[in-house]
């Protein structure tokens, strides 16, 4: 039987959760949720194509930089279109996304370094 990769299952669960939020509160941070779905799909692709992204770390960093810029821009856009003042918790979203990027990059770095040792 094939080994189950729990990190892929967790990323799929996060993707399902993000897609479910479109039905729960469709008017709150709409553009930000779209960017977060793209981010989860990017991380899921990096997990599936780990060999490619381990060899091309610059592509992974470039993708994540573009997503981080789009995420900050979408938060500013979402808060500017709503008549209520900006919520400080909204700006913690890029901090969490950056943390996930660092974890994924370290995972790619460890994969490359262990392959070079063998």
UniProtKB/TrEMBL annotation:
<keyword id="KW-0472">Membrane</keyword>
<keyword id="KW-0812">Transmembrane</keyword>
<feature type="transmembrane region" description="Helical">
    <location>
        <begin position="7"/>
        <end position="24"/>
    </location>
</feature>
<keyword id="KW-1133">Transmembrane helix</keyword>
<protein>
    <submittedName>
        <fullName>Uncharacterized protein</fullName>
    </submittedName>
</protein>
<feature type="transmembrane region" description="Helical">
    <location>
        <begin position="58"/>
        <end position="77"/>
    </location>
</feature>
<feature type="transmembrane region" description="Helical">
    <location>
        <begin position="30"/>
        <end position="46"/>
    </location>
</feature>
């Amino acid at each position: 039987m094939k080994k189950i990769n729990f990190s892929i299952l967790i990323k799929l669960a996060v993707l399902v959760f993000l897609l479910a939020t479109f039905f729960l509160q469709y008017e709150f941070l709409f553009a930000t949720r779209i960017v977060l779905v793209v981010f989860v799909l990017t991380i899921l692709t990096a997990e599936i194509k780990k060999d490619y992204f381990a060899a091309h770390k610059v592509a992974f960093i470039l993708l994540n930089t573009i997503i981080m810029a789009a995420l900050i821009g979408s938060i500013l856009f979402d808060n500017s279109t709503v008549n209520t003042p900006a919520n400080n918790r909204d700006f913690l979203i890029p901090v969490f996304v950056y943390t996930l990027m660092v974890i994924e990059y370290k995972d790619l770095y460890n994969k490359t370094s262990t392959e070079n040792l063998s």
